[in-house]
Write a structure and sequence with these properties.
The protein has two domains: about 20-170 and about 230-320, Bira Bifunctional Protein, Domain 2 (BirA Bifunctional Protein, domain 2, 2-Layer Sandwich); about 330-440, Rossmann fold. Helices cover about 40% and strands about 20% of the residues. The protein contains 15 helices and 16 strands. Helix 1 packs antiparallel against helix 5 and helix 5 packs parallel to helix 9 (about 230-245). The longest helix is centred in the C-terminal third of the chain and has 24 residues, at about 415-435. Adenosine-5'-triphosphate binds near residues 116, 121 and 279.
C-alpha cells in the first residue's frame, strides 16, 4: 500500500465537485439553529483525555475502545474529541458562560474521531452538527431541541425518518433499574456476546443497544426503564410528550433507546432512517443534568443532540433530495493575444471587485481549448477578445444558453452584467408575485 496516496482508513475527502452538497447542509443547519436562538461555539479538536473519561464515561465503548489518545511532547495525555458536548461543557465552565442569560444556547459543526470499524455511515473521522442548552430543567426545552432537529430534517427534505424517545431516568431511579437489568440478563450469561458479558456488571443498560442478533433477541424481554421512573422523571417524560404533541411532532416511545454516552439523564431520543442500512441513527441526543457538576461546576441542567452529517448526506443522496446547484461563472473572457490577456485580466479584476463571478485564461491556452474550458465550467456568457476587439473597443457578449450575441463596448462590460442581473432579479420577483399574490400589486411586474 502506498501510504502517500492512500487516506487513513475510515476517513474521507470532500472533493471540489461535491462540496456544494455538504456546504448546503451546513448552511441550512446553522441558519435553522440561529432561528432557534443558538449561536456558534468553536472548541479545540483535542482536549485533555481526562475530560472525555469523566464526561462521556469510563465504562462506555467510546472511552474504552474508540478514542484517539496520544501523549504530546510535553507528556500530557491528549485525545481527539470523539463527540462535541464535553468540549463545549468545558468551555462553558472555563469562560464563565453560565452567568449569561439562561438558558445558554450554543451550536457547532465539528469533526469527531472514533476508532470504529468503518462501514457505510460509520467513519473514524466524521462530522457532527450539535447543539447544547444549559440552565433549564423544563421539559419544554427537551421538546424544543427535538423540534429543532425535526425542523432541520424536514427542511433538508429527508423522508421516512422516525423519531423515537425514551426516558432513562435520573441516578436515583436508574439504580433500581440497573439491578433489575443485571438480574434479567444474568439468566442469559451463557448466551450473551463477550462484550455484553463485560457490560453486565459495569453498564448493563448498554446491552439493550447491542447490535448482535442473540443479544438483541434477549433484550426484547428485558424490563423497561419507563416502568422504574420516579415520580419526577415520569412527570417530566409525560410533559415532554405533551409539548411534542402541542407542536404536532410525531414520535414513538422506544424503551430500548439508551444512548452510548454516560452523561444522559431523563429524556433520550434518536431520529432513525431505515434507508441507509444498520447505521440508521442520523441524530441522537437528550438531557444530561449531571454533566456540568461532573466536571466540577455548579449543579446545572443541560441537554442537546449530535447529528451525523455524513449520515444525513447519505440519506439525502439515497432519497434523491434536492441540493441547490453551485453558481457557475457569469462570464468568461477569452483572450486571443498577449495584450488581450492583460486587458481581460484587468476587466475580470474589476468585475470580481463588484461581486461578479468572472474568469479568464490563466493557462495560456488557445481559443479552442478556452472555449472547451468555458463550456466545462458552465460559463453563462463568453466574450472573445483579440486584436480587432482591442482596436475597436467592442466585444460580443455571447449567451451560452441561447447562443444569442450582443455587441457592447468593452468599457461597459460591468454595466452590461448589472443589466443582466437586474433583468434576472425582476424576472424572479415577477415569478414569485405570480405564484403568491396579485401581480398588479407589485410595481415591478
Ligand atoms: P451509533 O449507535 O450509530 O454508534 P452513537 O450512539 O455512538 O451512534 P452519538 O455519540 O450519539 O452516536 O453521536 C451522534 C450522531 O453522530 C449519531 O447519531 C450518528 O449520526 C453520528 N455518528 C456517531 N458515530 C459515527 C461514526 N463513527 N461515523 C459517522 N457518524 C457517526
Ligand atoms: Mg457509537
Amino acid at each position: 500500500m502506498n501510504l502517500l496516496t492512500k487516506a487513513v482508513r475510515g476517513t474521507q475527502d470532500i472533493l471540489p465537485r461535491d462540496s456544494y452538497k455538504i456546504r448546503y447542509v451546513e448552511k441550512t443547519v446553522m441558519e435553522i439553529a440561529e432561528n432557534f436562538g443558538f449561536k456558534e461555539i468553536r472548541t479545540p479538536v483535542f482536549e485533555h483525555t481526562e475530560l472525555f473519561a469523566r464526561s462521556v464515561g469510563d465504562t462506555t465503548d467510546v472511552v474504552q475502545k474508540e478514542m484517539y489518545t496520544f501523549e504530546d511532547k510535553g507528556g500530557r495525555s491528549i485525545t481527539l474529541r470523539p463527540e462535541g458536548t464535553a468540549g463545549v461543557a468545558r468551555a462553558v465552565l472555563e469562560n464563565g458562560l453560565l452567568g449569561d442569560a439562561a438558558p445558554l444556547r450554543a451550536s457547532y459543526i465539528t469533526s469527531c474521531y472514533r476508532y470504529e470499524k468503518p462501514q457505510a455511515g460509520r467513519l473514524r473521522e466524521f462530522h457532527q452538527f450539535g447543539v447544547e442548552m444549559f440552565g433549564t430543567a423544563s421539559p419544554a426545552a427537551d421538546a424544543e431541541v427535538i423540534c429543532l432537529a425535526k425542523s432541520i430534517i424536514d427542511t433538508l427534505g429527508l423522508e421516512n425518518i422516525s423519531l423515537q424517545i425514551n426516558s432513562i431516568g435520573c441516578p436515583k431511579c436508574r439504580a433500581r433499574y440497573l439491578e433489575a437489568l443485571r438480574e434479567y440478563f444474568g439468566q442469559y450469561k451463557d448466551r450473551l456476546c463477550e462484550t455484553c458479558l463485560g457490560r453486565l456488571e459495569r453498564n448493563p443498560m448498554r446491552i439493550l443497544d447491542c447490535k448482535s442478533e442473540v443479544c438483541s433477541e434477549i433484550a426484547k424481554g428485558a424490563p423497561a426503564m419507563t416502568d422504574f421512573l420516579c415520580d419526577e422523571c415520569w412527570e417530566h417524560f409525560k410533559k415532554v410528550q405533551a409539548f411534542l404533541d402541542a407542536a404536532g411532532v410525531y414520535y414513538t416511545v422506544n424503551t430500548s433507546i439508551v444512548r452510548g454516552l454516560d452523561y444522559y439523564t431523563k429524556t433520550v431520543f434518536e431520529f432513525v432512517s431505515d434507508d441507509i442500512g444498520s447505521q440508521g441513527t442520523v441524530c441522537g441526543g437528550g438531557r444530561y443534568d449531571g454533566l456540568i457538576e461532573e466536571l466540577g461546576g455548579p449543579a446545572t441542567c443541560g441537554l442537546g443532540f449530535g447529528m451525523g452529517l455524513e449520515r444525513i448526506l447519505l440519506v439525502m443522496e439515497n432519497q434523491g433530495c434536492d441540493f441547490p446547484q453551485p453558481d457557475s461563472p457569469m462570464i468568461y473572457l477569452a483572450p486571443m493575444t498577449e495584450s488581450a490577456a492583460l486587458e481581460c485580466f484587468s476587466a475580470v479584476k474589476t468585475l470580481r471587485d463588484e461581486g461578479f463571478y468572472a474568469q479568464t485564461d490563466v493557462c495560456g491556452r488557445g481559443l479552442k481549448a478556452q472555449m472547451k474550458y468555458a463550456n466545462k465550467i458552465g460559463a453563462q456568457y463568453v466574450a472573445v477578445v483579440g486584436e480587432e476587439e482591442l482596436a475597436s473597443g467592442k466585444i460580443k457578449l455571447k449567451d451560452m444558453e441561447s447562443g444569442a450575441e450582443k455587441e457592447i463596448n468593452m468599457a461597459d462590460i460591468l454595466d452590461a452584467l448589472y443589466d443582466i442581473s437586474y433583468d434576472r432579479t425582476i424576472g424572479h420577483l415577477t415569478e414569485v408575485a405570480e405564484k403568491f399574490g396579485d401581480p398588479d400589486k407589485f410595481p415591478f411586474a
